[in-house]
């Protein structure tokens, strides 16, 4: 939009704004405005078989497929063939 009190001058596709150089003695440019949007978060990891039972994921310990994983919010998923899972 055109309301500098409410919109961002950043390109919505790239999040970039035009380059701006402040002159000597000018540390503030109140004509610039931009809103930043956090990228979507993901939560996930890996379910593995702890062959040596040390509680640490060591090289070579295989992922466990088809394990149900549930968040406290009720959202569920299942590990993939490699033991990995992700919540978007």
Give structural notes.
- The protein is mainly beta.
- It folds into two domains: 1-37, no CATH class; 43-87, no CATH class.
- The chain has no helices and four strands.
- The protein has strands spanning 43-46, 68-70, 76-78, 84-87.
- The strands form two sheets. It has a two-stranded antiparallel sheet.
- The chain starts with 42 loop residues before the first strand and ends with a strand.
- Keywords: Secreted, Signal.
Radius of gyration: 23 Å
Shape: elongated
Order of helices and strands: EEEE
Gap between N and C termini, in Å?
A: 30 Å
Which class do the helix and strand fractions yield? mainly beta
Low-confidence parts, pLDDT < 50 over ≥5 residues? none
In terms of DSSP E residues, the strand content is: 15-25%
Q: What is the mean predicted local confidence, pLDDT?
A: 84
Number of domains: 2
Count, helices: 0
**Percentage of helical residues?**
under 10%
| Number of E-type strands | 4
Sheet with the most strands?
2 strands, antiparallel
Strand order of the largest sheet: 1-4
